[in-house]
Amino acid sequence: MKFPKPYTLKQIAEIINTPYVGNDDFPVLGMNEIHVVVPGDIVFVDHPKYYDKALKSAATIVLINKEVDCPEGKALLISDDPFRDFNKLTQHFKPFQSANQSISDSAKIGKNTIIQPNCFIGHNVVIGDNCLIHPNVIIYDDTIIGNNVTIHAGTVLGASAFYYKKRPEGYDQLISGGRVVIENNVHIGALCSIDRGVTGDTIIGEGSKLDNQIQIGHDTVLGRKCLIASQTGIAGCVIIEDEVTIWGQVGTTSGITIGEKAVIHGQTGVTKSVEGGKTYWGSSIQEAKNELKDKAYIKRIPGIIDQLKNK
């Protein structure tokens, strides 16, 4: 998430009431999760396991719960609870805005686009030309939709990320301030849910087609011309490259990459990154030809046992 204008380290520290290490006027341009940070961004870290990764990341401002040596060219915000203070920044720069009508006055809707009854279109939504939005579609704030997009009934774009920190009193949600971006010529079936990014974008690439009842988690990037069949669940921060085919009831873990033109057979559990150009099946995932070969060997076991008995 980029801020509406550049801020200084001192200004950001005053918002969250934390001490800092660095020049008062050190520039702060935005905030992001560690996998998408760029110079000028704030990243937060609250566990020693990830200190080194955060300090060496592209982010130039690190919101951290321990006083450490500040890397050259960077700045630190010292907090007793970086998770809480990251949420404070999200609430400050992207506060929730309630709606008082079905289609916000700030929404922009392109030429020849049809919005069927009972849809909700939030603040700052942009919908391109020649789109068809069927009844009961919910489009949360800041969603961007390209041209020639079809979205079927009951789909929800832009709900919060499933991202929680466990505390003694219960689970604390990381507030989502990102967006959903749907590129041109995408088809989304009925009853799909595509969550917004925490601070970045969840992206559905140009020409991709989604069946009914699909869940796509926060900050996932789906490439161009992908096909996803029904009841598939894609976790957060997944990269799915171009022209991937995923059949029904597939589930993935977070933070993995599925390579270009891979094919994932139905009910596969994708527990790790996989190369493109191959076909996969099983749980845990492996190449389909290997799985089928293993099953063929297993079927031969009774015959082998009979041969041993007859010797």
3D structure, described in words:
The chain has helices at 9-16, 51-55, 82-93, 288-309, and strands at 2-8, 20-21, 27-31, 41-45, 61-64, 75-78, 108-109, 114-115, 120-121, 126-127, 132-133, 138-139, 144-145, 150-151, 156-159, 164-167, 170-173, 179-182, 187-188, 193-195, 201-204, 209-210, 215-216, 221-222, 227-228, 233-234, 239-240, 245-246, 251-252, 257-258, 263-264, 269-270, 279-281, 286-287. The longest helix is centred in the last third of the chain and has 22 residues, at 288-309. By secondary structure, the protein is an alpha/beta fold. The chain is built from 4 helices and 34 strands. The strands form 6 sheets. Strands 8-11-14-19-22-25-28-31-33-34 form a 10-stranded mixed sheet. An 8-stranded parallel sheet has the order 7-10-13-18-21-24-27-30, with no helix packed on it. Strands 1-3-4-5-6-2 form a 6-stranded mixed sheet. It has 3 domains: 2-93, MurE/MurF, N-terminal domain (Udp-n-acetylmuramoylalanyl-d-glutamate--2,6- Diaminopimelate Ligase, Chain: A, domain 1), CATH 3.40.1390; 103-219, 3 Solenoid (UDP N-Acetylglucosamine Acyltransferase, domain 1), CATH 2.160.10.10; 236-311, UDP N-Acetylglucosamine Acyltransferase, domain 1, CATH 2.160.10.10.
